Amino acid sequence: MGCFFSKKSKGKSSDKEDRTPTTTTVETTATSNAVPLGNNTDEAPKQYSWDKREKVDPKDYMLTGLKDVTVGRLSGKLNGQQFVIQECENCNIFVFDHSATITIDDCVNCRIVLGPVKGSVFFRDCKDIKCVVACQQFRTRDCKKMEVFLCCATQPIIESSTGMKFGCFQYFYPELGFHFKDAGLSIFNNNWSNIHDFTPVSGENNWSLLPEAAAVLDFVPAPDPESEFKSVRISADPARSIVPLTKGGRRKDSEESCLFVFFAGEYTTANARRLIDEVTAKGFVLIQTKEVSMRPEDVKRVFQNSAEDLVEWITKGPVIALELNGDGVVDACKNIASEMFSGTMVFVSDNKNTSSRDVDSFFNFADMQMGL
Predict the structure, then answer these.
(1) Residues placed in the known binding site
(2) Phi and psi for 109 in degrees, rounded to 5?
(3) What is the 3-state secondary structure (H, E, C) of 67-85?
(4) Which residue ranges in the chain fall short of pLDDT 50?
């Protein structure tokens, strides 16, 4: 069914820091004029751990009522906190940091870039928005005319929204890879084209996919050179994007697809990126990717005859799977596997007659595993 090679990988252990509480002893000398300690107004107040925390100003985590400006937050300013954007008009907004959740309310004619969001991104009552978004959950309600370059770990949802267009996330800034990890997001779990319309209208399409050749910077320009973000080295070149560019739900160009799976090791992500670069340089197309954990019974169901040799490898961590498409892609992938990844544990479809079954079997399992 498939071919594979093996390589041992090393694990890492983590140490927990021991913290022992400290106590302070106050000594007093008894005199006839002594004031009881509890009433001594000169004594410094006790310091508790919550007193030492840096005070948080809610205004640092909000953008409200702005017009015709370039604003946002640089890396390190949010550090995983919640963020709110509301009542902004004709603004360029750049959030080059990771956050917990972001809500965007009542904004009109804005261009927005949001760094990785651990939880949800929720647009409400917005109109004429162009944005680049990476998040766990994406939702809109009562929105009109939005163009979204999206990386979303779950199924994006639109509700009472019209004129919605979606493309695959294509963006880079130097800290973006670290921000994905901080937000707990995988660059390989992107359901950008699998939209669920919560309020469909018979005979109408509330959403569609952007043209395949759509360029991010034509929708969301780079920061103004006069702004505080001028020093951030951004790129929207698909070849530099942190998230791999996938064809998603668009019609495939060929009937031949190949399943290529990397099992956990020291360089799994880097190897997957190398493969993508290699096959796309040869003219093949990346359709979809997934990073998911598997159990022994999952391996037997998905990989069938090849399962016995693969079971031990799924205990080392998640697998990264890719669907590649194009005439001759199966033979090309088998050659690449033997030439570039001979010391790495991989699974590759064995022939084009069974490769479609391989693809369907794995990605159906992955979608069920992730609740899609």
Answers:
(1) 119-120, 136-139
(2) 55, 55
(3) ECCEEEECCCCCCCCCEEE
(4) 7-40
CB 170 within 8 A of CB 216: yes
- Say if strands 2-3 and 346-349 run parallel, antiparallel, or are unpaired: antiparallel
Q: Which two tokens stand for residue 328?
A: 């001759």
Residue 131 φ then ψ, to 5°: -150, 160
The number of CA neighbours under 13 Å toward the Cβ of 241 is: 25
C-beta separation of 355 from 3 below 8 A: no
Residue 179's nearest CA partner among 249, 77, 30, 105 is 77
Confidence (pLDDT) at 14: 43
Instruction: Confirm if 115 and 97 have CB atoms less than 8 A apart.
Output: yes
Residues in the annotated binding site for GTP: 119-120, 136-139
- What pLDDT score does 57 carry? 76
In which element (H, E) is residue 301 found? helix 296-303
147: enclosing H helix or E strand: strand 144-152
Using CA atoms, how far apart are residues 314 and 250, in angstroms rounded to an integer?
31
> 115-129 b/e with 16+ CB inside 10 Å = b?
bbbbebbbbbbbbbb
Total count of residues recorded for the chain: 372
What pLDDT, on the 0 to 100 scale, is given for residue 242? 96
- What's the Cα-to-Cα distance from 33 to each of 7, 30, 41, 42, 277, rounded to whole Å? 79, 8, 15, 15, 83
CA angle 156, 161, 167 (to 5 degrees): 45
The predicted model scores a pTM of 0.84
Q: Which residues pair with 127 in a beta bridge?
A: 108, 144
Tokens of 159: 């509700």
Nearest to 261 by CA among 366, 368, 369, 151: 366
CA dihedral 200, 202, 206, 210 (to 10 degrees): 120
Residue the block writes with tokens 């031990």: 312
- Each residue of 310-340: pLDDT tens digit? 888 888 899 999 999 999 999 999 999 999 9
Q: For residue 43, what is the DSSP state? A: S
- Residue keyed to tokens 């319309």: 197
Residue with tokens 């004619």: 109
pLDDT of residue 76: 93
- Start-to-end Cα distance in the chain: 26
DSSP assignment, residue 206?
S
Domains and CATH numbers, the chain: 58-218 (2.160.20.70), 252-370 (3.30.70.141)
